[in-house]
Amino acid sequence: MSETLILERAQRFLSALRHCQVLGIQVHGADPQGLTLRLPYSPHIVGNPQTGVIHGGAITTLMDTTCGISIVCALPEFEMCPTLDLRIDYMHPAEPDKDVYGFAECYRVTPNIIFTRGYAYQSDPQQPIAHVVGTFMRMGKSLQGNRELQRTIQGGGA
């Protein structure tokens, strides 16, 4: 799959997720090696007003979404793949007033389970603020009634 198609697919999937729109999450980059999303810093996602540190739930959402969309970019056709397990190890808090980036790659695809891994960072990917490992269940190509989402992601509009 071409980088352009992967990027378009990632942007379409992200645009269908209302909670990601509210958080302002955007596709920063997408290619066969993985996906990077950006969570812009804003006061409404601060977990501690005294320090200005982003709430861990916003970072968890960023990383779950990044891992999930990395699957959409890796599979030849769209499949609904809900999260089975997501583990995030926080290395240190995010710095206030800085965007957070999430990178994820899909490193193993089996007939039933897809495995992903990645990290969250701010200025330097070599200094991650968190590591993530996620597993996702393959449900096949049928969305079992969610045709609008399927059309949006495949490019047919809602």
Overview of this protein structure:
Pfam families: 4HBT (PF03061). Keywords: Hydrolase. The protein is α+β, with helices and mostly antiparallel strands and 158 residues long. It has one domain (3-154): Roll (Thiol Ester Dehydrase, Chain A). The protein contains four helices and eight strands; from the N terminus they run H-H-E-E-E-E-H-E-E-E-E-H. A six-stranded antiparallel beta sheet has the order 1-2-6-7-8-5. Strand 6 and strand 7 (113-121) form a beta hairpin. The radius of gyration is 15 Å and the shape is globular. The two termini are 24 Å apart.
Number of domains: 1
Mean pLDDT: 89
What percentage of amino acids are in beta strands? 25-35%
At the first level of CATH, the class is Alpha Beta
State the helix count.
Answer: 4
Query: In the CATH hierarchy, what is the architecture at level 2?
Result: Roll
Spatial gap, N to C terminus: 24 Å
Summarize the structure in short.
The chain has 158 residues and is of the alpha+beta class. It is 29% helix and 33% strand. The chain has 4 helices and 8 strands; from the N terminus they run ααββββαββββα.
